[in-house]
Specification:
This is VOC family protein. This protein is an alpha/beta fold. It has 2 helices and 8 strands; from the N terminus they run βαββββαβββ. A hairpin with a 6-residue loop joins β6 and β7. The radius of gyration is 15 Å and the shape is globular.
């Protein structure tokens, strides 16, 4: 039985921009990574590596493939919005019908679509 999503991997066209996006904007933490024999990073949420970044591979021609986006549960909508605005990173903020969940959609520097989901009680 599946117990949950372990991680997803991003092939970074620009390694430093990719790290900055996921750490400074999204709020993940760069953390320990075993020596895998190639450069990269493991980015953590609540002590768990959830995003792996490859720094040594070419980005495929069909960037998104069949995966549309990756979504994170998040907190601190106002602060996250302020970080995105300060960096000039485009995003779309909308409210999910029914549940009222705030959804912030954006693209990482490599073209991957990212969704950040915030509790309906938060204020943008």
């Amino acid at each position: 039985m599946i117990q949950g999503l372990n991680h997803f991997t991003v092939i970074a066209e620009d390694y430093e921009k990719t790290l900055a996006f996921y750490t400074r904007l999204v709020g993940l933490q760069n953390g320990p990574r075993p020596d895998l024999g190639f450069p990269g990073a493991w980015l953590y949420a609540d002590g768990r590596a959830v995003v792996h970044v490859y720094a040594d591979r070419p980005v495929p021609a069909q960037r998104a493939g069949v995966i549309d986006h990756i979504a994170f549960s998040a907190r601190g909508l106002k602060q996250v919005k302020e970080r995105f605005d300060a960096e000039g990173t485009p995003y779309e903020l909308r409210r999910q019908r029914g549940a009222g969940t705030w959804q912030l959609f954006c693209n990482d520097p490599n073209g991957a679509r990212v969704e950040l989901d915030f509790d309906a009680a938060e204020t943008p």
